[in-house]
Every structure is written in C-alpha cells, then in structure tokens.
Amino acid sequence: MPVTLTFLGHAGFVLGDGKHAVAVDPFLTDNPVATLKPDEISCQSIVLTHGHADHLGDTVSIAKANDATVYAAFEIAEYLGGLGCKTEPGNPGGRITTDFGWVAFTQAFHSSSYEGRYMGMPCGVVVSVGGQTVYHCGDTGLFSDMKLIGELYQPDIALIPIGDRFTMGPELATKAAEWIMPKVAVPMHYSTWPLLVPDASGFTPEGMEIKVMEPGESWQYG
Ligand code: NI
Ligand code: MN
C-alpha cells in the first residue's frame, strides 16, 4: 500500500494510507510557514518526538477534536493524559503495535521540555503505516547509531532535520542520511525562522532520492 506524506511545515507531517492518518509533531499555531489550521487536521493517531513547543504544538486540540491516540515518551504521555488525551507511552528502544502498523522510538541527541516541565527523553520515531516505514529523526545531532537504526528498520523514507543550531546542519545531516540510507530523504526543520538555515541546497546525500517538500504539499510513496 502506498503512503501519502503531507508536510505541515517545520517538522510536522501527516502520514496516511487511505484508511489511517497519523500526524507527527503537529505544530501549526505560531508556525510561520504552516498552511493548515489545527481544525483542518483529520487523524486517528498522533506521534510525538519530544516535548518542545515546535513539536508538541497543537497536539492537545487535534487529539481532542479527533479522539486520536497520542504515542509519545512516558513523561509526555503522562502530561497529556492529565489533560484528557488518550495516550500510549513509550521510550527509546521500544516498539508499540498499532492498528495502522507500529511505532518505534529511537534515541535522539537533544533535550525535551515543555513550559519548563521535564518531558523525558527526546526521541526519533519510526512509523510503519501502509506497509511503508518512515523514520522521523526528531530534533537531533549526528550520532553513529543512525547507521544501526537504518540497518534495523530499513526505512523507506527518512525525515531529517537540517536547520543547524538546534539540530544537525546540512553537512552533518548529509552524513546522517548516508548512514540511514533510506530510499528517499526529506529535509525538515529549516527555514521556519531566521535562526535556521534558509534552504536545503546544502543537503546532498548520495545513493538516495532527495525530496524537498513545501509546507502544505502532499506526496505519495510506494
Ligand atoms: Ni527540539
Ligand atoms: Mn525543534
């Protein structure tokens, strides 16, 4: 089954197989490049990489409006559960079987907090939907176990932060992509604000397709 990827801008995506829609890091309000509003997102599941506001974003309103389940690190799940969201907690190394496939949490070298509250380990997430495997690296620096994550999950698509300052910049992200070796690499987490690199021209991994997506754009794979 093919998977349809919709880029929400920054690090947000919706992955759909026609039956299930999974939103990852749905940050729309206060996202200067977003083309969609939270009430335009229709999904049954939400997956979060970490607690920072540019990732947790509109999770609460979207989860409640859609009665969606949120998959996230234990501390985030505990916090969102307290706000009345349906949650499934996890942590790096673990995999959760779901009605659309599965969600696995990987490590990420970053931090994770929300409004001053500790939000557990920052993660990358590997999501299997429509039989296709998508690795969203989260916010992270480069680490050599990306090679292992590529080997273990053999992702069809990798969503890789390239914006620099808070994550890898284009050069290190290029190295990351060549370690993960997906079939398609999608750069993300850049150009949202002036602090981040303005374009993806420095992201040049070899041996895979590079797909640069515009906010609001959808693309089908598989
Ligand atoms: Ni972050
Ligand atoms: Mn971020």
Characterize the structure shown:
This protein is of the alpha/beta class. It has a single domain, classed as Metallo-beta-lactamase, Chain A. It has helices at residues 53-56, 59-66, 74-82, 146-153, 170-180; strands spanning 3-9, 12-16, 21-24, 45-47, 69-73, 86-90, 95-97, 101-107, 113-114, 117-118, 123-129, 132-136, 157-161, 184-188, 209-210, 218-221. The protein has a seven-stranded mixed sheet with strand order 6-5-4-3-2-1-16, covered by helices on one side. The longest helix is centred in the C-terminal third of the chain and has 11 residues, at 170-180. The relative contact order is 0.17. The model has no long low-confidence stretch (mean pLDDT 98). The site of manganese (II) ion (MN) has 7 residues, from helix 1.
Mean pLDDT: 98
User: What ligands are attached or bound here?
Assistant: nickel (II) ion, manganese (II) ion
CATH homologous superfamily heading: Ribonuclease Z/Hydroxyacylglutathione hydrolase-like
Write down the secondary-structure element order. EEEEHHEHEEEEEEEHEHEEE
Q: At the first level of CATH, what is the class?
A: Alpha Beta
- Figure out the total of helices: 5
Strands, count? 16
* Morphology call: globular
Under CATH, the topology is which?
Answer: Metallo-beta-lactamase, Chain A
Percent range for β-strand residues:
25-35%
Lateral arrangement of strands in the main beta sheet = 6-5-4-3-2-1-16
Distance between the termini: 7 Å
Percent helix, as a range, is: 10-25%
Give the CATH architecture.
Answer: 4-Layer Sandwich
